[in-house]
Amino acid sequence: RLHYAEVAPDEGEADFTRAVLVLAQHGYDGHITPDHMVNAKGDTTGGQAYWAFVYGYIAASIKAAERQLNS
Q: Is residue 37 scored above 90 in pLDDT?
């Protein structure tokens, strides 16, 4: 049986930044949207800190892909 755990994009087995690069290499120009919130220990913002982190991580991954494609 497989073990599955919902984790932040920088904690999983998949390389999220690489996935964004592959999407960009193939001309994808749609949305990249987080699916679920992960409850972070000590987060007293009701999840807002997590969403801010995830959207920042997505934005940084897109910028990194753009830079690599344009270099």
A: no
